[in-house]
Amino acid sequence: MKSLLGQLEHSYETRKGYWKGGTVGVRGYGAGVIPRFSEVADKYKESAEFHTLRIMPPAGMHYDTGTLRKMCDVWEKYGSGLIAFHGQSGDIMFQGCSTENVQPAFDELNEMGFDLGGAGAGVRTSMSCVGASRCEHSCYDEGKAMRMVINNMLDDMHRPSLPYKFKAKFSGCANDCVNASHRSDFAVLGTWADDIKVDQAKIQEKVAEMGRKAFNDQVVNMCPTRALSLNDDDTLDIDNESCVRCMHCINVCTKAMSPGDEKGVTILMGGKRTLKIGDLMGTVVVPFHKMEDEDDYEWLVELSENVLDFFAENALEHERTGEMIERIGLVNFLEGIDIEVDPNMVSHPRTSSYVRMDGWDEEVEKWNARKGAAAAE
Amino acid sequence: MSEAQEAPRMPDECGVPDGMAFMHPALKKNYGNWDYHDRPQVGVLHHVAKDGSEVWTVKAGTQRQMDVYTIRKLCDIADELAGGHVRFTTRSNIEYMVESAAEVEPLIARLESEGFPVGGTGNSVSMISHTQGWLHCDIPGTDASGVVKSLMDAMYHEFKHEEMPNRVKITTSCCQINCGGQGDIAINIQHTKPPIINHDLVSNMCERPAVVARCPVAAIRPALVNGKATLEVDEKKCICCGACFPPCPPMQINDPVNSKIAIWVGGKHSSTRSKPSFHKLVAAGIPNNAPRWPEATEIVLKILAAYKEGGKPWERMNEWIDRIGWPRFFEVTGLPFTKFHIEDWRGGRSTLNASSHVHL
């Protein structure tokens, strides 16, 4: 540690970093250890090798102190004693390990029931929000969905051979507390299909508490789709067909309003940060899918598998899912993962007339058939 | 011999552990059965389950990068005052859960006395989501924890009070890859000069075609220098993004003087009210001034003060700016608007104002 701080001080003085990568790992895995060799090891001997083990935390980042203390003991024995809770992908980062100690440190953590996370061109460690464990907004079992999806992709996490990284994140509602929309290729966000729930007596209490002007300013007028209106008796008029499940009114009126009963998920795909063509938002690929029983969770796992397979086969080297979608077009991507087009996928229909429309009639028939089938249900 | 031939231990590929095994019993008992919550005071959340059971959560800031003594101290607090369970938030705050209101104050007092500020809830400035920097990254333009410490010291009051129009999520990143992510305010390294190439090392250390392919503007091409295969950069085309540096360390992009700091505002992850948005450039050319980064801190405080003053309740940074308009933003923050603020890439035209809506 003393030596690490020496090197850090050196960086502060010269305003440059002095770490380089390399190849360090554990038996059986091809990723999960971030190798760090010091370029100034002659001056700061103890930081010559300062590798990081990325360890996946329990879903929801819950801990008992016994587990944390055991982790500390392992890291005091084999590492520098420096642990980060948590890295930006969600890993517990055990920082500062010699090459020689990486294997025994991992073995002990692995014996405790913890596994290495992702690095490089593979599936990365995931995050799910606090969700059902302590939040009334939770629209599905976030931890369960995350574990089922990620634990089904461990081979592509631990033996990475994808075109580039693949991230999935799981938030229980549109508040998106784990930043899934921007920060993941596969963003699962909780939502609901039926009407928002409202307790009108409690709305009246809330209006009385806030004052009518404040309620109008802070709740009614902030609805993004103008779906709310305050009635003369201080109850709330809700145009549920226009509601986009943005969560705002529920956030303000935590006691009076809550998500509906038909809970499920909206899935966005292709979000990422800068490298290489600039930031990309995730795009709606699944507008809604219910999350009620085991079959629904199995459906989610299967979908994630299809997306990962398509990405593995079709992305160019160092291309993320979003860049691939941009290159091949959303429609080709949807065909590849066997999902039908839906107007919820666009902000608005095309504005450019430069397009070939071969097969228009067949596409119209498909739409009508789908609508007919839905109406018959 | 038999010992030597024993098969080595192979990993138990157990994956993500089940949170249930580590969860506070009150959270486990009410899993999926919560009714509502409120915030009785800053740093405290109060959740009520449908069966009437209650849980109070006390949220405290941590330094994220912790030594084992600090973690054990946090564990002692949990063992003595919070039933031996904790959880961490995505922004590295720690949360303690208790089942009666009476247990809240002693917990806060203890955390504060041990140096962990209680706050970060609701419309406060929460912990900065950040990166590794000089401490551990192989391509850092600046430090991470040090920058965060300097900024959070300056925003201590805002962490401990809920006085902002809505929550403020700040991020820092030590290169343009932006591992800290989008934020209401993002403080990121911005390189301003092309890489300086050590031609003696390129052929040994870099997979040259991969480096050429990495460049977003096709400014890198193979070259021969002093008889050695290397790479060269068309400096007129180069946008100084630094994408070539990770796969090719001899293309040094970090520079003590020319790696500057840029500040971006209005990034928003949630779909709450407005759709998610990316953060936008507002200030650049700020010196990477370790150890306390006073110039960057001053600008962040200026932006925060303007938002605090002008934002309406529940407006996030981007929503406040959408309402008042960019001309007013630059006016109230006192920041200069330059030609560099205008997007000039192919898709950038969609960011221009195509209406007669002007703020005068």
Automatic annotation (TrEMBL), chain B:
GO terms for molecular function: 4 iron, 4 sulfur cluster binding; dissimilatory sulfite reductase (NADH) activity; electron transfer activity; heme binding; metal ion binding. One of its GO terms (biological process) is sulfur compound metabolic process. Pfam families: NIR_SIR, NIR_SIR_ferr. InterPro entries: 4Fe4S_Fe-S-bd (IPR017896), 4Fe4S_Fe_S_CS (IPR017900), DsrB (IPR011808), NiRdtase/SiRdtase_haem-b_fer (IPR005117), Nit/Sulf_reduc_fer-like_dom_sf (IPR036136), NO2/SO3_Rdtase_4Fe4S_dom (IPR006067), NO2/SO3_Rdtase_4Fe4S_sf (IPR045854). SUPFAM superfamilies: 4Fe-4S ferredoxins (SSF54862), Nitrite and sulphite reductase 4Fe-4S domain-like (SSF56014), Nitrite/Sulfite reductase N-terminal domain-like (SSF55124). Keywords: 4Fe-4S, Iron, Iron-sulfur, Metal-binding. Residues 229-259 form the 4Fe-4S ferredoxin-type domain. NCBIfam families: dsrB. This is Sulfite reductase, dissimilatory-type beta subunit.
